[in-house]
Amino acid sequence: MPVIHSMGMKFAPGDESSNRSNECPDKLPIEPVPSSALGPSRAFSTRLFMILILASTSPIRRQMLDAAGVHYETARPDVDEDRIKQGFRGDDEKLAGALAAAKALSASAHRPGDWVIGSDSLVSVDGKRFDKPDGREQAAAHLRAFSGREMVLTSAVALARDGAMDWHHAEQARLSVRPLSDSFIAAYLDAEWPEVRYCVGVFRLEGRGVQLFERIEGDHFTILGMPLLPLLGALRERRLMPA
Fold first, then answer.
1. Is 120 annotated in the active site?
2. DSSP states along 17-31
3. What's the confidence (pLDDT) of residue 104?
4. How far apart are CA 40 and CA 104, in angstroms?
5. Does the predicted TM-score (pTM) go above 0.70?
6. Which of the following is catalytic: 15, 80, 91, 120?
């Protein structure tokens, strides 16, 4: 890392003094102080060597980690989600977990030694899974399909290192969508488009999406798109965050 290199190598203390001692032989050379006498160093934390990567382009997931005080970098995962979803046999928690793991592993393959977070969310209504809308018309169709029904939102998060899965967790939340009129759907999309185009379920709970629901059961962070509290616990267990 450039900062560590420049502080630890290029500008090593004592070089100038040792040169001057050669020029003035009548003066005693200055000997370096043993590192043990300096006490514990706070300039170089192990955190500098333990890089955490978020394999996601989701703004809300970045906001969650930022607000929680997590230090990380971002990487774009290279995952064919449609291929994973096609023919997948298992419930939504297993599928969300598989997608989160695939994202973490895709970035981990290019970042040896680093810890990588992958996360994904799914929405189902009456047993039918809904993807992110392709356009505004499909978004309106999704909202009409959600109207007056219970939405099951599943979010999963995974940790990988050196191309191998280390940990994963999935949770579900249930959101009761109130009856939505066509006029409300049009006004809602006027206000929220195109931001909700990138949201499974066509809503942002931190925005006007809260107006879609009459009852919500489940963890707030899970609904936002990532089970944050279990993730923070896993990071502490691996000493990637202070305990």
1. yes
2. HHHHHHH-TTSPPPP
3. 98
4. 35
5. yes
6. 120
